[in-house]
Amino acid sequence: QTQAKYQILVSDSMSKEGLLPLLESDQVICIEKNVNELDDLSQFDALLVRSATTVTDELLAKMPNVKIVARAGVGVDNIDLDAATKRGVVVVNAPDGNTISTAEHTFAMMMSLLRNIPQAYASIKAGEWNRKAFQGFELRGKTLGIVGFGRIGTQLAQRAKAFEMSLLVFDPFLTKSRAEKVGVTTATLDEVLTGSDIITVHTPLTKETKGLLGMKNIAKTKPGTFLINCARGGIIDEQALKHFLANGHIAGAALDVFEEEPATDKELLAFPNVIGTPHIAASTKEAQLNVAAQVSEEVLRFLEGEPASNS
Ligand code: MLT
């Protein structure tokens, strides 16, 4: 019988099918338990997380054998990257496993927002039949402003085109030639802000993007603009959003992510034209299988001495 070479801790719930490369490898002992449920973490060579586990310097200190932390998802904002670097721990993610799910969810949120579907649903479930209260807008002919044009922004743009929307795309890293290839017009942030009917953000949360849609920038949008955030809480400043919802400048917002999660801002959620979901854009069978499989394979390869490809 082969002796397992590596011990791997899967701290957040992940697709079992996606974890099969680890669960079936005789090289690996794979424990699916939250870091808080174990007293001794010193034996683990690798740590797999989604977003529920916060990987702090303190946690890494308890895991002196960990060589790699893998995030089964895109955002690594729940991992202290400086602490990992300091300790020589490699951090990898699953950069494209949930692209389609997130783009589709954003699209669903956009349609729900413009057609008042959640509000109409709540009304009919409450026994009402109110056909006047829920008049909405068509997407055709509207301008969708996309801030951040990576994988998700690109997929969203393709879907928006099928709905005959116009697109304005801002991304400081987007080259003219790539924009041409995808068939979108590059714009400045100000052009997106002033020229869009609906603005959706698809950037990571960084120093540069935190509060990007705040008082100053939301003020530049057209009266009646809709805002969508299915990326990271905090890219749209919630205080500023509430200000512009309260004065009617912003027509509505669709939020899958919040500055604090679980979402606690009752005032924000109480706006009838704010619709929300609990950070589920990547929660599909397909995406969860993809991201778990991607990180499982990546971790195995890395432990076997190959360089990490998504670090
Ligand atoms: C991601 O960063 O991949 C998404 O937010 C999904 C998740 O948190 O699992």
TrEMBL record:
<keyword id="KW-0028">Amino-acid biosynthesis</keyword>
<keyword id="KW-0560">Oxidoreductase</keyword>
<comment type="pathway">
    <text>Amino-acid biosynthesis; L-serine biosynthesis; L-serine from 3-phospho-D-glycerate: step 1/3.</text>
</comment>
<keyword id="KW-0718">Serine biosynthesis</keyword>
<comment type="similarity">
    <text>Belongs to the D-isomer specific 2-hydroxyacid dehydrogenase family.</text>
</comment>
<comment type="function">
    <text>Catalyzes the reversible oxidation of 3-phospho-D-glycerate to 3-phosphonooxypyruvate, the first step of the phosphorylated L-serine biosynthesis pathway. Also catalyzes the reversible oxidation of 2-hydroxyglutarate to 2-oxoglutarate.</text>
</comment>
<dbReference type="GO" id="GO:0004617">
    <property type="term" value="F:phosphoglycerate dehydrogenase activity"/>
</dbReference>
<keyword id="KW-0520">NAD</keyword>
<protein>
    <recommendedName>
        <fullName>D-3-phosphoglycerate dehydrogenase</fullName>
        <ecNumber>1.1.1.95</ecNumber>
    </recommendedName>
</protein>
